[in-house]
Amino acid sequence: MLKNKIKLTGVLGYPIKHSLSPAMHNAAFKHSKLNYAYLPFKVKPEECAGLIKLLPELGFTGVNITVPHKQTAYRTVDFLTKDARLSGAVNTIKVKNNKLYGTSTDGEGLFRSLNQDAGINIKGKNIIILGAGGAGRSAAVYLAVKGAKRIIVANRSKKKALFAVKLIKKYAPRVTAISVPLDENIIKSYSFTSDLIINATSLGLNKSDKPAIGKKAFKRGIIFYDMIYNPALTSTMKVAKRAGARVYGGIGMLLHQGALSWEIWTGKKAPIRIMKKALIRGLKKKKK
After folding, report:
1. Tens digits of per-residue pLDDT, 160-201?
2. According to DSSP H, which parts of the chain are helical?
3. CB–CB of 196/128 below 8 Å?
4. Is residue 162 a contact partner of residue 139, using CB atoms and an 8 Å limit?
5. d(C-alpha 268, C-alpha 82), whole Å
6. Residue 19 and residue 10: Cα distance in Å, rounded?
7. Is domain 2-104+252-287 annotated with CATH 3.40.50.720?
8. Residues contacting 139, CB < 8 A, separation 6+
9. Distance (Å, rounded) from C-alpha 197 to C-alpha 245?
């Protein structure tokens, strides 16, 4: 009886109905003939820490953590990996011997997507990151450690941008790190000496959202990567495309960070091709 027991995994977020992670992970479990299930859970911020602590008792093998709970997870787990400490956030939890092990696969997921989808080698590159929340800070520090030459962190809140810069200087002291306001003219002044702009803000999640920055902030040929994966073409991506930028959405980041989480839980190689097909199908369904 116990041999056939389903191993529970899932994702905690608020909101959660937009998530394509269940389709991706369950397709991978089915393909690999593993008796796992991946479920979405809509969890209010005030309920998150309590629920995470209950994961061992509830029989979970592990979970993903998404907006707005990544910092809560960071503070709640029993053990943190180096990648979690670098980003100051946790997006993946593994339950082992009734203990909670937290890590972040976001940075490596982004790194792999940039390399495989956009064909960019981060080493020696000048990067602008829009947003200094959990996703932006994680990206900034991880890409700095991976060998970026200069990172500009643009954010409306000066405090958050400065904190991201402080972390870069701590973990990658040779990288030039600068905080600036999220202002189109200021970003334009750095854009012409940059190789890559990454949107790590939530602007673009809704069809009514204005672009994070305007057309004049992009130089022709620069790579623009939007971490948002749904919609597949955000308002900022449209503007960047009109300016002549090479544009990529966040579906690749979701795929690679998800595959890394899947491997942490199962101990097996993730079927990337199957997971990618499931994501593409899911996006098409959401368009209807």
Report:
1. 999 999 999 999 999 999 999 999 999 999 999 999 999 999
2. 21-31, 45-58, 70-76, 82-87, 106-116, 134-145, 158-171, 184-191, 235-242, 251-266, 272-287
3. yes
4. no
5. 21
6. 11
7. no
8. 106, 107, 110, 129, 198, 200, 227
9. 10
The pTM score is 0.92
Say which CATH superfamily domain 107-249 falls into.
NAD(P)-binding Rossmann-like Domain (3.40.50.720)
Q: Which two tokens stand for residue 214?
A: 């305007």
Q: Which of 5, 17, 70, 238 is catalytic?
A: 70
Question: Distance between CA atoms of 217 and 245, rounded to whole angstroms?
Answer: 10
Identify whether 99 is a catalytic site residue.
no
In whole angstroms, how far apart are CA 169 and each of 83, 144, 235?
16, 9, 32
Q: Which two tokens mark 42?
A: 């809509």
Question: Which sign, positive or negative, has the C-alpha torsion 162, 165, 166, 167?
Answer: positive
Helix (H, G, I), strand (E, B) or coil at 216: helix
Residue labelled with tokens 């200094």: 132
Where do the domains of the chain lie? 2-104+252-287, 107-249
pLDDT tens profile 80-114: 999 999 888 899 999 999 999 999 999 999 999 99
Handedness of CA 164, 167, 171, 177 (dihedral sign): positive
Structure tokens at 46: 């005030």
Give the chain's length: 288
DSSP 8-state class, residue 69: -
Tokens matching residue 37: 């299930």
